[in-house]
Amino acid sequence: MNINPWDRNFAGDVYKYGTQPNAFLATDARDWPPSLDVLVPGDGEGRNGVWLAVQGHRVTAMDGSAVGLAKARALAEIRAVALQTVLADLADWAPPPAAFDALVLTFVHLPPAIRAGAHRRLAAALRPGGRLVLEAFHPQQLGHRSGGPQDGAMLYTPALLRSDFHGLVDEVWAWDGEVSLDEGPGHQGLAHVTRWVGRARGA
User: Whole-model pTM?
Assistant: First the structure.
């Protein structure tokens, strides 16, 4: 029987990437309007989705790991918030179109064969004017020991994201550079990341 590697990664009581939100997301979300419908694909054990729910948003957390989502629901129960979870594979999953005000992608690294298609299906879930907030490892992350794939084809530059989301989401802000990560045992130390914010077309 094949075991989902992410189920193995999320097994046990320790939260691989901690229980606090991604710092970039937390900073960006301070300026969001209240009570948004938010989609968080690749939310794993729920640290971002649960935090957004605590802020008063209606959150759908999607992941390919049943183990991760079970821990996300447990965290939501501890924090006394509602969290909708969806078990699916980003290789072919399509969320409802124009159903969300915000889309959060935090270290969701996909292989080239499915990346652009998945990004476009996810972007189509945004309502006109909806916000996309993304942080991922940059190719210059290779050689750092703070986390992420050790395959340069799965690392993201601002130019790659502009291409993937072209015609659907307009770039609002983009940056890449070094930051210090403190996100559970999975992301620790100096890292080179790409941060990207976009707005869905049609507003």
Answer: 0.97
